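Sequence, please.
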C-alpha cells in the first residue's frame, strides 16, 4: 500500500458514520453553493461558478455525502498551472449539522491522498485570512498529521481588493507531503 492509499484509508476510517467521499458531480453545484453561503466565513462565488467547478475541477475536489447521497461538506481545489505538483485548496466548508466531527480534516486528507495518487502532488497551498481560526487550525493540523512544513506569507494585501475593507490573504504552503509511489 502506498502512502497515499494509507492516507485515504485513514480518512475513510475517520469519516463520521454514514458519510462517503466522492468527486463532485455537476448536480452537486447547488448544494455546494448553499453550504458555502451558509458557512458564514467563505467568500461566496456565483452559483454558476460552483456548477463549473463541479464540471471542470471534479478530479481535484471532493464532497462528503450523507446516507441519502446529499452533499454535507466539500473541498474545492485545482492543480496550480505554474507549479503542477501543488494542489491549491480553494474552499473548504461543512454543513452546520456536521461540524465539529472532524469532517473537514477527513475531506482534506482524502482529497490530497487521491490527488497525490493520481497526479503526484507533493504539496498544497491555500490562502486564509488571519481571523479565520477554524481554517488556520485545519491546515496547521493537516501539516502536523503529514509531517510537513508550513510556510506563511501575505499573498494579497487587503488594499489590493477593490471592494475595500478586506483582510490580507495569507498564503500557506504545506509540504513536502510524504512521498507517494
Amino acid at each position: 500500500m502506498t502512502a497515499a492509499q494509507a492516507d485515504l484509508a485513514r480518512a475513510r476510517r475517520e469519516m463520521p458514520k454514514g458519510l462517503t467521499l466522492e468527486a463532485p458531480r455537476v448536480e452537486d453545484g447547488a448544494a455546494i453553493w448553499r453550504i458555502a453561503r451558509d458557512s458564514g466565513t467563505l467568500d461566496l462565488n456565483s452559483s454558476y461558478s460552483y456548477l463549473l467547478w463541479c464540471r471542470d475541477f471534479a478530479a481535484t475536489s471532493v464532497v462528503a455525502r450523507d446516507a441519502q447521497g446529499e452533499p454535507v461538506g466539500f473541498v474545492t481545489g485545482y492543480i496550480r498551472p505554474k507549479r503542477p505538483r501543488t494542489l491549491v485548496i480553494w474552499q473548504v466548508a461543512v454543513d452546520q449539522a456536521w461540524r465539529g466531527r472532524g469532517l473537514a480534516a477527513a475531506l482534506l486528507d482524502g482529497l490530497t491522498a487521491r490527488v497525490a495518487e493520481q497526479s503526484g502532488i507533493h504539496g498544497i497551498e491555500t490562502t486564509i485570512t488571519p481571523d479565520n481560526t477554524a481554517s488556520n487550525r485545519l491546515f496547521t493540523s493537516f501539516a502536523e498529521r503529514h509531517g510537513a512544513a508550513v510556510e506563511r506569507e501575505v499573498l494579497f494585501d487587503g488594499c489590493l481588493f477593490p471592494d475595500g475593507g478586506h483582510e490580507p490573504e495569507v498564503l500557506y504552503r504545506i509540504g513536502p507531503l510524504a512521498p507517494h509511489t
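Residues 79 and 87 are 5 Å apart (CA to CA).
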